[in-house]
Structure formats: structure tokens, C-alpha cells
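Page 42, continued from yesterday. The earlier attempt failed because a stray header line got pasted into the input along with the sequence. Redoing it now with the clean sequence only.
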Amino acid sequence: MTFQQEPYVGRFAPTPSGHLHFGSLLAALASYLDARHQRGRWLVRMEDLDTPRNMSGAAEHILQTLEAHGLIRDGDVLVQSQQTERYQQQINSWVGQGLAYYCNCSRADLAVFGGVYPGTCRGRNLPPADDHAVRLRVTNDPIVFTDRLQGRVTQHLESEIGDFVIRRRDGVVAYQLAVVMDDITQGVTHIVRGADLLDSTPRQLWIYQLLQTTAPEYLHIPLLMTRRGHKLSKRLNSAAIEDSQAPASLYSALLALRQQPPAELQNRPVAEVLAWAIEHWQPGQLPAVREIMVQDPQ
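This time it went through. C-alpha cells are written below.
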């Protein structure tokens, strides 16, 4: 089902590999405030395709934590693992058109190429196989877009990335394809997310071109990086935020987002904190950088 296009539809799309931590709260809050400030809709999608990474109960806990922090979604949660047939149909279509192809290169095979796929399997016409990846053909025409915070971004896919994977060798549909197809299905017009995904955006814009669909506007906020050089993440066991501390967590998140909340909001209820934040949301107060250093979590 595709929703009718609206002036503003935003979304937050967590991976249920752990509980929501402070870095994830920043992304959720920024996307929520951007949508509500522009009187738009705000959706939640569960990006659970990489099943080995999923943690039992994490999806439910994330939704509970969002609600405890007043981040109330519009509509039902789209669950990616329930969309796999749609993704595979698109992959099959592109393979049939010669726009994508099967690839049996291993990571060891590609290690010497510095992360740029050299096109090894482009002309091999490998037959379909469950243990082969599928790659999407690209050109070297520049992909250019202007991020609302980070500014102009240019990438030449063929020389900087190469034909990229849209289905992994283990059969899991790749993030780049799933995220675009789901954003189109949900009618998403604006995306607010972490700057770690900024370099992925040109690949997603290439998919939008192939699907002949208008791409959303992007806003990539800086990542919180510890002094050890790691971003706050579930993988590094960054501390989960506590629902009982929701007002304090929201206030701290507004400070991290450079929104300058008044001191009297520190001990106010969630609804009051969010009401102020929605009215005063100014993403341009964030620095146009990819990373912000913070103290290591205790």
C-alpha cells in the first residue's frame, strides 16, 4: 500500500538489535521535532532484516521507550521482515532487465580494492544462486544533492563505490534497497537521521532514479562520538535510556541538539518539554559537522 503524497512525512527507522540508547534518542527526537514543527506526520519503521543482529524483545522495548518519551507515531509500524517479497520482486525485475547481476566475489577477493567494487562479475552472467550476492549497476555520472545541514554532497558511484550490493550472499536484502522501497511505500518526504548514513545517500538516490520516484529531502545530524573514537551504539553496549528519566533525557537531548532549552524545563513533564521543543525547533543551530565529541559513557 502506498500512501497519498503529503507535504511532510517523516520517519524514524531503528534496528531492533538492542534497546534505545542516547544516540538513537537524538535521531528519533530530531526527526520527530522536524515533522511536528512543520505540522507533518511522523512514522516508525522497524528495520529488522538482518535477523542475526535482532535481539529478542528489542522492537517492543524501543516502541515503549519512544512512547514514554512522548514520541507518539502516526499509523502502524512498518516491519521490514514482512516486506521481503516486494524487495525480491524488484531485484528479479532489475536482474531481468540487465540492471543488476549475480556476484560470487568474497570479501577476501575484494579486500585489495580498497572498498571499491571493480566490476569483477559484471560481464560473467552468473546464473541465479541462493549463495550469490546481487549487485546493482551504476555509472560514474555525479550524484549531487544538498543536505539541509551538511550542505552540498557529490559522489561518483562507479569510481568511489562501484556496483553495490542489493542482496547479500546470505540472502538478506541490503539496507540500501529496502530503505528506499519502504520510504516510497510510506510516502516519506523528509528524512532526518545520523551523519553516518550521509555517504550512503547517493546510492539511495541512484535507486530513486531507477524507480523514477522523487527523492525526499535529507537532514543528517552529527553523531555523538566518545573520546575513544566510537559512536554511541548498541553494538558498543551504550547505556539504554530509562523511561523513568524521560524528561531529563529529553532535556539532555535538546542540549546535545544545540536547541538551547530554558533551564526551567529541566524538571517539567514530557509534554511541556516537547511542546517547547516543537515550537522552537531550529536544526540550523547544529554544527555542519559529522561528529560531536562527548564523554565516554560510564
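Notes: The longest strand covers residues 41-46.
Reminder to self: strip header lines before submitting.
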